[in-house]
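pls ignore typos typing on phone
nicotinamide-adenine-dinucleotide + seq
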Amino acid sequence: MTDRYSDFINTPIGKKLAGALGLPAPVPLERYNPAEPQVPGMIMAIGESAAFEQVVADLVAEHVDVRRNLAPRDRPHAVLIGVDHATTVEELEHGLMQAQAAVKSVARNGRVIVISKHPELATGIEEHAVAVGVTGFVRSLAHELRAGATANGVQLTAQPSSGELTALTQAVRFFLSKRSVFVSGQFLPVDPNQTGATVDRVHPLAGKVALVTGAARGIGAEIARTLSRDGATVVGIDIPAAGDALASVCNEIGGLAVQVDITAMDAPEKIFAALKQRGLKADIVVHNAGITRDKLFVNMDAMQFNSVLEVNLAAQLRFNKAFLGSDVQGDAPRMVTLSSTSGIAGNRGQTNYAVSKAGVIGLVESSAADFAAAGGSINAVAPGFIETEMTSRIPFATREVARRLNSLQQGGKPEDVAEVIAFLVSDAAAGVNGQTLRVCGQNLVGA
Ligand code: NAD
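k done
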């Protein structure tokens, strides 16, 4: 779907008009390309903890240009700020304020990344207040940054026990990369002691088999393409009515198409049978299929209410129960489910949808221990406004408002969600489990 306003506002006349009238001026976002360097520019590093120094050492070892001082005309791609050592308000003040000049000089489409302690790790009242206080800084700075730049945080959920901080560095790398282009004002809690495997940067999913539901179109089709590009063999699932579109996506990427309505009671059996027939096990599952049936709660019939819960939540619960411990489960299963910012903040006309999307956040939280025991992980992504057929059905005026109401002043693209999922299902995200990461350009409304 095209965003004509964005296209116009980036013409010379459009830019003048936006400046004169104070209109939103969304900047074209630079998106991920595996052929380009994964960390696209110089990084200014400001911090002092052992964990921070280890991240810097890891990046330098991978030939990333990390500096401790900036020359007057330097425009860093990213500013990496470490305040995980801060236990007092004074230490936090110092840690953040010393980054001010560097933040001012950050490049277009740049990044500010703050490493801090997860509040659960803090001991004592002041240290806890400081850890939570960091979230206010990152969220506000993300609102203030312009020209496509974003701010995000990585939170340590455990005290690093050795010099091995691969999972922490991988999370920082994710935020440094263009994979995270539509993620802003968010936090990724990471267990720094989960080292994960050495990651093949170009094909991080090589040798993996990935199930993707709702793969015939929209975000699901883009997830299928992205996981395939990253090396996975994709098994795409969709309803029989979408069979032609599903076949076309799967043919394009050399994947396998399985026509199943996921709400059918025997859907897990059918999917497992299709895998077994080809001698495959699923290392990755992405529960993407979803529907909306919007109406005010008082006007909604039971069919509209229940069908959304069936597709978006109940079908996933049934699948997961049958999948974990089955003979088609891969050795270290990584699962991602699609939530929504509506599931976090609620949305008028979407009581049914919000139940289902908040429900999957609960599913993820309560399944994390089981997935960890199986050597894997389960996480959710919560997209905001993404340009798809689903959102093209929103009435024009509402759609135009929804698309501008985030810090990046534009809708995301299906590939923006797909890139985040591709990170979460890779070994690079070994330290991330039970989390919900928003991909919403920092929606200004709601939570
Ligand atoms: P879409 O409507 O374009 O595509 C959904 C796909 O799921 C379709 O191919 C459809 O046939 C399939 N599907 C529906 N019911 C199914 C069933 N019972 N069995 C198998 N397949 C089924 O939607 P989209 O915009 O690409 O959204 C994908 C996911 O992202 C959904 O879970 C949606 O709730 C979520 N999401 C989307 C947005 C957005 O802005 N587009 C925002 C937040 C969350």
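The first strand starts at residue 43 and ends at 46. Residues 213-214, 216-220, 237-239, 242, 261-263, 288-291, 311, 338, 340, 383, 385-386, 388-391 surround nicotinamide-adenine-dinucleotide (CB under 6 Å). more later
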